[in-house]
Design goal:
Helix content: 55-70%
Radius of gyration: 38 Å
Largest sheet: 5 strands, mixed
Structural class: mainly alpha
Distance between the termini: 97 Å
Shape: elongated
Strand content: under 5%
Length: 995
């Protein structure tokens, strides 16, 4: 009978030793197999020192129970008397359930951990080859492989080897395994082995001597024919051998699999032949290979098969790798590669991804490999396939700051150690940090964190990931600043040539100018220069992420020159997290927003305000403009003040549009493109209306004081009235007046005419501000008619002379400035024209269709591509708007929802009324939104309006970035535009033309 006190004492001791299930551990200690050692305090202390004492004890019991009696005695005697074995064996059992299973199946393999000699402490390829020498079939190869793996894991968990040595040993074991697998395959087909030469080239982490516990082993096969053999037959034989080698390693047997052998990095990937000759490889790499393939070849290493052929392959490929940075498409390829691909990671896993997540292993590896490609062409010390060795060489050569390299080195080692321990547990390929508390506890303890293992692990992991996130971009740019600032004498730094090469690789077309800008911004010991040196590494990365990094940097220098002496500017960029990134996006997205900012640099402050990029209401805008006009001394000064408000608010709108379209690191791009278009259209329209109201007030006050002799209203038509103005749109308007009581009609007409003329003059005065052109050509009689009319005059004209197209033009008429009551009466006057009772007759419908067809044939500019013209092209703005407007004129009399000046609202109302089916309505809306965004993008990029895509490559790429297309995908953008508008045109043909 067990004494309760003694049981309690055992329970407490087990709990203090780190067991999470003391009761279960006590039962395991009572197992017959451990009777000889259960009371040994050394054993309990050793179990408590493992990553998972419960798992270690369970594994030990299973191992002991699998021994024969005489073998069990040897195991237990050695366990309690030999500390090296005890630490190794229990350490492995406490860290790896999978290796515990292996020992239970192969109970003699524990003896592989007994030896403790110098060669055993740091085995190399020769030792692993000896360990696999007796394996003559796939099953025995797996057993021998696991036995070798057992020794690597034991040294790892005991701290005998560090993470870099473990990775190198795993790569050596993989090399020995590939050689053994090729030996087995050759023995099974000796004729094939005699008929060919076959070399196995390791790639990826195996090629770089930095393998994980469980990872695909990437390879490339090179074949050739011995003297006198037919090349074709030799390649067939080599392909059979290579395929058998892959199966030997990859297929699942009673002993499981070793790891998949992946040959997809070969030329043409899965679609290419498994084995090629060296000449065939060279022909492919010289003509067809992409930049990422040369990046992969950084780690190429001959590991098995014909040594001479493997060496010839490496010698032939190496020069191509180090010339990759000189290739024509290197810069856009690098820009695409630099944009992390996390889209394929499930959202729930992104924060647990050690490899691909933000601040993960891939960030460090990519940064190091890119810098190797850029600078390795002139510096052979960088020619290493091992990440940490290459990082050390980059720091030694001044290509990466020593402090940054040291931080990245520590972070990378920690993350790789985590990855190793996660995979070691079940020997499964994974890069996900576990979520289960017990798994995290085991992982933390295996990393030496014993006080609060879960909390300490999470804290250390987040700290190292944060370092990688912060530094993996900065290491590209900090050495550039060191090169121009030269503040640390004796420190290795980039030469001007190396700095230029790096800037070129990062997308800067004029590296010499970029270096001059950096020197102007960052040189010296002033506080301003010091802050710039802090900001610029990040800013340069954001500029490089745009279609025109040179323009971004140049614009940043201009803004900094203009505001550098103000106390708040650099403080804003340094302290307000979003301000610096927002500014970088705006300055590198095209010409319009930077031009607006240069005229009023203080508007930078908007970029640091969370609400600063939201458009202001029409009421607030008009109130500010009118207040500014009232304070001015004369009309010219008044309109200059109004145009100043317009400039600032246009910058607010363009900046919000750019940032919403591009997205930032913390806020993804706006997904609802329709909402983005509506926001811009409303903001520009409201701003134009407020500016016109200010010009009207200024013109009236200059000559008549507070009251004009006639009531006066401005009616917006076209896109202005529809609240759909683009950045480059003119303001289409009609002017209406009504003489005040007691005022002669002729005097009133002269006053109204004078006001219109003065408004237009004031708004067109030469200025650095964007022009605002007022277009009144849609008035009755066009340019031949008077600029301004009374309500009775409009009524008489529309009653007697109005054509159908004029009624159509009035569909988007709305009061935008002046006397609101007069404007409302004008709208009441035209409603019967634009919404005719019983709808349009057949003759009117035919007239509209004829006019539209004639416009398509006559108004499209000569030489313009009709599939890419956003306004008049196939499925463009005109197609969609005329289709919607025809619906309004035919059905708005009966459907109140159609009585709107906005195209998208009218389209939605047509769908709601059952006039346009759901799919067709979506097609039209998508095409209209896309065409509008293209027009806005062209204006943002070029600084002038345009209805078609730019022809210049950088401008086209910038339009693509605004629309959400990655670098190098402009062709996809044009094809998508053609596809979307082609579908829209089919709907227009059906709904508008009735075909």
């Amino acid at each position: 009978m067990t004494v309760p006190g003694r049981r309690s004492s055992t329970f407490i001791r087990l709990l203090r030793s780190g067991f999470t299930d003391p009761s279960g551990a006590a039962r395991l200690l009572d197992a017959d197999a451990l009777s000889a050692v259960r009371a040994d305090p050394v054993l309990l202390d050793a179990l408590g020192a493992t990553a998972d004492p419960d798992l270690a004890l369970l594994g030990l019991v299973r191992l002991a129970e699998a021994q024969r009696p005489e073998e069990l005695r040897v195991l237990l005697d050695t366990l309690v008397s030999a500390k090296p074995l005890r630490d190794r064996l229990l350490g492995v059992l406490g860290a790896s359930e999978a290796l515990g299973d292996h020992l239970a199946r192969h109970p003699q393999d524990w003896q592989a951990l007994v030896t403790y000699e110098a060669a055993d402490l740091h085995p190399g390829l020769a030792e692993f080859e000896r360990g696999l020498a007796d394996a003559h079939d796939p099953v025995h190869l797996r057993v021998s492989y696991r036995r070798c793996l057992l020794s690597i894991a034991a040294r790892d968990v005991c701290g005998t080897t560090d993470v870099q040595q473990v990775a190198a040993e795993l790569a050596d074991l993989a090399t020995a395994t590939l050689r053994a697998a090729l030996r087995i395959a050759s023995a099974a087909a000796p004729e094939d082995a005699a008929r060919c030469r076959l070399a196995v080239i390791a790639m990826g982490k195996c090629g770089g001597n930095e393998l994980n516990y469980v990872s695909d082993v990437d390879v490339i096969f090179v074949g050739d024919s011995p003297d006198g053999e037919d090349e074709g037959r030799a390649l067939q034989a080599a392909t059979r051998l290579a395929s058998h080698l892959m199966r030997i390693c990859s297929e699942t047997t009673v002993e499981g699999a070793i790891w998949p052998v992946d040959a997809n990095l070969r030329p043409e990937g899965r679609n290419g032949p498994l084995v090629r000759t060296l000449a065939s490889h060279l022909a492919y790499y010289q003509r067809w290979a992409k930049t990422w393939e040369f990046q992969a070849l950084l780690k190429a290493r001959a590991v098995a098969g014909d040594e001479t052929l493997g060496a010839e392959y490496i010698d032939a490929i190496s020069p191509l790798v180090w010339q990759a940075a000189e290739r024509e498409n290197f810069v856009p390829d690098v820009q695409k590669m630099r944009r992390r691909v996390v889209d394929n990671i499930p959202a729930a896993q992104v924060d647990r991804e050690l490899k691909l997540g933000p601040g993960g292993l891939r960030d460090v590896e990519f940064a190091v490999q890119l810098l190797q490609l850029v600078h390795g062409r002139t510096d052979a010390t960088l020619h290493s396939g091992t990440t940490l060795d290459a990082l050390h060489a980059l720091a030694a050569g001044g290509y990466v700051g020593r402090a940054d390299a040291a931080q990245l080195h520590d972070a990378y080692r920690f993350l790789r150690a985590m990855e190793h321990r996660i995979q070691l547990y079940r020997l499964r390929r994974t890069h996900l940090v576990p979520e289960d508390e017990n798994d995290l506890r085991r992982l933390g303890r295996s990393m030496g964190l014993r006080t609060e293992p879960v909390a300490e692990l999470n804290k250390a992991w987040r700290r190292h990931a944060s370092v990688v996130r912060r530094l993996h971009e900065k290491i590209f740019y900090r050495p550039l600043l060191d090169a121009v600032a030269q503040l640390a004498p004796g420190e290795a730094r980039l030469s001007p040539r190396a700095a230029g090469q790096r800037l070129e690789a990062l997308g800067y077309a004029d590296p010499a100018a970029a270096l001059r800008h950096l020197e102007a911004l960052a040189s010296g010991v002033s506080r301003k220069a010091a802050i710039q040196r802090t900001l610029l590494p990040v800013m340069l990365g954001w500029f490089a992420d745009s279609a025109d990094p040179d323009a971004g940097l140049l614009n940043f220098r201009k803004v900094s020159d203009a505001l550098g002496k103000t106390p708040w500017y650099l403080r804003l960029l340094r302290d307000e997290g979003a301000a610096a990134e927002n500014l970088a996006r705006v300055l590198s997205a095209g010409r319009l927003a930077p031009d607006l900012l240069m005229r009023a640099p203080e508007a930078v402050a908007l970029l640091g305000d969370p609400e600063g990029l939201q458009p202001r209401t029409h009421e607030a805008l008009e109130q500010e403009v009118l207040a500014a006009v009232n304070r001015a001394e004369n009309a010219e000064a008044a309109v200059a003040a109004a145009r100043g408000v317009r400039r600032r608010e246009l910058f607010r709108t363009t900046a919000g549009d750019i940032i919403g379209s591009y997205g930032t690191e913390d806020n993804p791009a706006e997904e609802d493109h329709g909402a983005l278009v509506d926001r811009v259209g409303s903001a520009v329209s409201d701003l134009t209306a407020a500016t016109i109201a200010g010009a009207l007030r200024a013109a009236v006050r200059e000559q008549w004081g507070d009251t004009l002799p006639t009531r006066f209203a401005v009616i917006g038509v076209g896109r202005f009235g529809g609240h759909e103005l683009a950045y480059g749109s003119d303001a289409d308007v009609l002017f209406v007046h009504e003489p005040r009581e007691g005022v002669d009609e002729q005097d009133a007409a002269k006053a109204a005419q004078a006001v219109v003329s003065e408004m237009r003059r004031l708004l067109q005065l030469p200025s650095a501000d964007p022009p605002l052109l007022i277009d009144a050509d849609l008035r009755p009689e066009g340019r031949s008619g008077p600029l301004v009319r009374t309500l009775p005059s409009y009524a008489a004209y529309y009653r007697r002379w109005s054509l159908t197209w004029e009624s159509q033009a009035l569909l988007r008429a709305a009061t935008v400035a002046g006397d609101q009551e007069l404007g409302s009466r004008f709208i009441d006057l035209i409603d019967p024209l634009r919404y005719p009772v019983e709808g349009l007759g057949d003759d009117a419908v035919r007239e509209i269709r004829r006019l539209k067809a004639r416009m398509e044939s006559e108004r499209l500019p000569r030489g313009a591509d009709p599939t890419l013209h956003t306004k008049l092209g196939r499925g463009g703005l005109s197609d969609v708007e005329w289709t919607v407007q025809l619906m309004q004129m035919r059905h708005a009399w009966a459907e109140p929802g159609l009585r709107t000046t906005r195209t998208r609202e009218a389209l939605a109302a047509s769908h709601a009324a059952g006039l346009i089916p759901t799919e067709e309505a979506q097609i039209l809306d998508e095409a209209w939104v896309l065409a509008t965004r293209v027009r806005n993008a062209v204006m943002l990029v070029r600084g002038r309006a345009g209805d078609t895509f730019p022809s210049e490559a950088r401008e086209l790429a910038a339009v693509g970035r605004y629309l959400g297309y990655a670098e190098g995908t402009a062709g996809d953008m044009l094809e998508d535009y053609r596809r979307i508008t082609r579908r829209a045109r089919a709907v227009v043909d059906e709904l508008f033309y009735g075909s």
